[in-house]
Amino acid sequence: MAALMATLIVCLTLTISIAMVTAASSTVQFVFGDSLTDVGNNNFLQYSLAKSNYPWYGVDYINRQPTGRFTNGRTIGDIISAKLGIPSPPPYLSLSMNDDAILQGINFASGGAGILNETGVYFVQKLSFDDQITCLEKTKAAITLKIGEKAAEKLCNEAVYFIGLGSNDYVNNFMQPFLVDAQLYTHNEFLELLTLTLNGQLRRLYGLGARKVVFHGLGPLGCIPSQRVKSGTGECLEEANQYALEFNSRVKKLLVALNAKLPGAQMALADSYDIVLDLINNPERYGFKISKTSCCNVDTTVGGLCLPNSRLCSNRSEYVFWDAYHPTDAANAVIAGLLFADPDIRQAPSPVSELAPAPSPL
Ligand SMILES: *[C@@H]1O[C@H](CO)[C@@H](O)[C@H](O)[C@H]1NC(C)=O
Ligand SMILES: *[C@@H]1O[C@H](CO)[C@@H](O)[C@H](O)[C@H]1NC(C)=O
Questions:
Q1: pTM confidence score
Q2: Sign of the CA dihedral 148, 153, 158, 161?
């Protein structure tokens, strides 16, 4: 009984919330992730097929220009940065290691990336999570040259590390029957492989000085437009949603265990599953009208990204999804606000004051 109580108390005290991680923390952010957080790294990868630096991506971003963000406007990360009062960190591949900007935070996210190296193989080129951590390692060496070892260690200890990965490990790996991992593993085995790999990656980040880590869990993957079309009836794929729930629960356990083992670690799960599911099931509750199909009239048989000749919906604020995978700027604002339990975040400064009328296809 005493042992059980002790375990309970340990678990309670080790469940770190994202508010705790980000409260009174340094303004330096290091962002790791996939297309949900990429702010332009893939623009620099010549052979990558996971690109969005063409219309109509960015149609609601600054100057209505595509930037490599996989949405019409801001990512959830952009909105969280605005909320914390700091600029959204620039893409790693846009920076020179001589640049003082590397002291202000960096975004390493790359469309198509996963926790596993083999995820997203058909995008040809991307920075996997391992690659992104290697980029941080190079950055830390450059920071050390600039400000010395002690100050570099302090900077890395105080920075906040946002990680959003796992969607591609499912959508562009395990859930593709023609790929090896789908044939090789049961879901339990795959989950074991994902968490074991993530454990090593988070320990590597810790070794580089990371203490304040926010891991953004998976949303209801079975309800994104690219998966709905597979059900034949347009309903959500329940099996995919179940995978996401199990993944989130396993990652939460992993973070609790790491907080217990690694001195000073404050690793939290930002779990947006219920938020996003409610947004999809009850769009009108949040000021949206349509959540089953995307604003951009994409062809899910050829990738599901928005193309220059795609037709756009007439009001982008009425749609939860921008393309077959990614939420709209308006949905990202709601999700970020709810994640931080802060309704005001929806009013976070937007780069454009109002949405322009739907442009005609190029
Ligand atoms: C994944 O790739 C990285 C290099 O990008 C390598 O260091 C690592 O060992 C690989 N992991 C596995 C499991 O193959
Ligand atoms: C677009 O939709 C949003 C959200 O439903 C609404 O507030 C806004 O008035 C609409 N804009 C136009 C031009 O209809």
A1: 0.90
A2: positive
For 55-116, the DSSP string reads: TTTTTTSGGG---S-SSSS--HHHHHHHHTTSPPPPBGGG--TTSGGGGSEEE---TT--SS
Convert the pLDDT of each residue in 346-358 to its tens digit.
Answer: 444 454 545 555 5
Among residues 52, 81, 310, 326, the one annotated as catalytic is 326
Chain segment 119-171, per-residue pLDDT in tens: 988 899 999 999 999 999 999 999 999 999 999 999 999 999 999 999 999 99
Q: Sign of torsion, CA 261 262 264 266?
A: negative
Q: Which amino acid residue places its CA nearest to atom 11 of ligand 2?
A: 315
* CATH domain 27-347 topology: Rossmann fold (3.40.50)
Ligand 2 atom with the smallest distance to the CA of 315 is 1
The answer to whether residue 48 is catalytic is no
The finding on whether 137 has its CB within 6 A of some atom of ligand 1 is no
Q: Tell me which ligand sits closest to the C-alpha of residue 197.
A: 1
What residue segments make up the domains of the chain, in order of their start? 27-347
